[in-house]
Write a structure and sequence with these properties.
5-stranded mixed sheet, alpha/beta, about 50% helix
């Protein structure tokens, strides 16, 4: 087919705009990467990844698989960072905070300084953020349908939640990137079932599993969702027909020859073999007994049965025992539950509505509006909409599975839903635009451009506070809705430092939620804010403590990370008296800064809400 010069030039302009949108996302992520202090889990991931590089083992906090941690530790390892010898830390036992302390020891001992080394670790996640952008462009058919690719990249690269986690040395964006790769491989296999594409499914599924164990549920749910949508769209069986890559996804064709089930079974078997080998490679081809790994997290979780009750499978050498140990770890954690906060309430076993609420208040309004429109368009009786429906069904299935979880620590656990919804929007609108009249198409294009620009502007404005971003539906006090990694994950200590210097504060009473060693970051002399005791002067308190969500890692001495309070030492609602005062500033999104000159009066624990 001959393509006119004008059409080619137009495509290049659209591709350039797509790259510009991706660059905006990368720019915002870079600002976030450099402006946020260390979040709660980053030292843990760094230490575990260093063990993989340095010793070829993977024994620390196996609840998280190794892929993202390998990436996080890569640059620090290349710059000479090393764990101490095993004799100084026993890899077969777990104190809950040992891995965190190891990671912090290395960050604070770095010759290049804490902040430089932290940024270096965070850069290990940048490739996964870029993969997310590239794969949604590919799934949208950006090569042959440039406008669809532009919309997909624009909706994804400017999502504050993705930008924030793409800037941190954590596991969440790696799980999104590898999940999207697996979805791409799966859809290509659906379009044309070949051995090579089946092997790609196995490899990408292994990478997704190495990024996060939740993929054991999310990927099968996604496959079922797309198959169901395909059947509802009367797409028939998997076929040997070449796909229209980058164009409309193939519709029913009676001339297409179905692939025999025995061929599909053989290909699925090869995919399973590829998945097993790649997953095993992620664990350094280790062989050992599950019973040789940590039996418990001291004072918290029992990971293995008592020795007398361990059966054959705990004693026999197995490939990658760390994988099976990690799955047991996650199951034990979920059974015990984790402290969660939603709409001012606290639960040790989570909330069924947690993730829908989080998505509703942390997703930009232009994105939500476009998805509402796409959802209406998906009800049209058009077979070509099967992929849009499949993505929406997959997102719904993932949210349904997540609702069963007793671990609600932030939207990050279901981040994969956001690019799925973006793809659903793109596929639904692309089909609509293809069939709309010229005048309608132009009007719709202007609306889409306006909404995309609005989302882009919002991302740029929030570039130093992406982690705590909320849309306007959250109101003026989003901390009343969500906390933890959605708002207060220990990320705003650098901003508090800036505020103390700007205001000339010479002494500060502090209650900081996080694993940082706060006295090592250039703050004024610090004192601990005593629970239940009103105070005067300059006071800084993290939202997690102010909202009485938790007293976890609350320190008597801010300069001594081991000086934690016991539960018996902390009265109920220990900081309720602050409800009678108004903060003079909020550091970032998570630390309230007060200047109290007169003696505070007692306040009811509920006066604040």
């Amino acid at each position: 087919m001959i393509v006119s010069k004008k059409v080619r030039q137009s495509a290049w302009v659209i591709h350039a705009c797509t790259l510009l949108l991706a660059a905006v996302g990368v720019f915002c992520a870079d600002s976030t990467r450099r402006s946020l202090s260390g979040t709660f889990d980053e030292p843990n991931h760094l230490a575990a990844g260093l063990e993989w590089w340095q010793f070829g083992t993977y024994t620390q906090w196996t609840e998280n698989p190794p892929l993202a941690r390998i990436a996080v530790a890569a640059l620090p390892y290349l710059h000479g960072m090393r764990l101490p010898p095993h004799r100084e830390w026993d890899p077969k036992t777990h104190d809950w905070d040992r891995t965190w302390q190891l990671g912090n020891d290395l960050l604070y001992a770095s010759a290049d300084g804490y902040e430089t080394t932290l940024v270096r670790a965070r850069l290990g996640i940048l490739p996964f953020f870029l993969i997310c952008i590239a794969v949604v462009w590919g799934l949208a058919g950006g090569r042959r349908r440039p406008l669809a690719g532009l919309l997909a990249v624009g909706l994804t690269a400017t999502l504050p939640a993705l930008i924030a986690h793409g800037a941190l040395a954590t596991t969440d964006i790696a799980s999104v990137a590898t999940y999207l790769l697996a979805v791409l491989a799966l859809l290509r296999w659906f379009e044309r079932a070949t051995t090579g594409r089946a092997l790609a499914v196995g490899v990408t599924a292994a990478l997704a599993l190495l990024a996060k164990f939740s993929m054991l549920l999310f990927l099968p749910a996604t496959a079922v969702a797309f198959i169901a949508a395909r059947r509802m769209g009367r797409m028939g069986q998997l076929t040997a027909r070449p796909p229209e890559i980058g164009g409309q996804l193939p519709s029913a064709d009676p001339a297409v020859t179905p692939v025999p089930w025995r061929v599909l079974a053989r290909q699925a078997g090869l995919a399973a073999v590829a998945m097993t080998l790649v997953t095993w490679a992620g664990y350094h081809f280790s062989v050992g007994a599950i019973g040789d790994l940590a039996p418990e997290v001291k004072g918290w979780l029992h990971l293995l049965p008592p020795v007398a009750d361990r059966g054959f499978l705990y004693r026999v050498p197995l490939p990658m025992p760390e994988l099976f140990h990690g799955i047991r770890f996650l199951r034990a954690h979920n059974a015990v539950g984790h402290n969660a906060y939603l709409l001012g309430k606290v639960s040790d076993h989570g909330f069924a509505a947690f993730y829908p609420v989080a998505l509703f208040v942390k997703t930009p309004l232009p994105f939500l509006g476009l998805f509402a429109l796409a959802a209406v368009l998906m009800f049209r009786r058009r077979p070509a909409l099967w992929a849009a429906r499949g993505a929406a069904l997959a997102a719904l299935a993932i949210l349904g599975l997540a609702a069963q979880s007793h671990i609600n620590l932030g939207i990050r656990h279901v981040l994969v839903v956001l690019p799925l919804l973006a793809l659903s929007i793109v596929w639904a609108l692309d089909d609509y635009m293809a069939s709309a009249a010229n005048r309608t198409r132009r009007a719709a294009g202007l609306v889409l451009a306006a909404l995309l620009v609005a989302q882009l502007v919002g991302a740029v404005r929030a570039r130093r506070t992406e982690l705590g971003y909320f849309n306007a539906l959250a109101g003026a006090d989003p901390a009343a809705i969500l906390l933890d990694s959605d708002l207060d994950w220990g990320q705003d200590l650098f901003e508090l430092r800036r505020l103390t210097r700007e205001r000339g504060i010479d002494t500060l009473k502090i209650c900081f939620f996080g694993m940082l060693r706060v006295c090592r970051h250039g703050l004024p002399p610090l004192q601990g804010l005593v629970p239940g005791v009103p105070a005067t002067g300059w006071i800084a308190i993290s939202e997690n403590y102010y909202r009485h969500r938790s007293t976890f890692v609350l320190l008597k001495d801010p300069c001594d990370p081991k000086s934690t309070y016991s539960r018996a030492e902390i009265p109920p609602a220990p900081f309720a008296w602050l409800g009678a005062h108004t903060p003079v500033a909020i550091a970032g999104t998570s630390i309230r800064l007060y200047h109290i000159q007169s003696a505070p009066t007692a306040a009811s624990p509920h006066e604040r809400f």
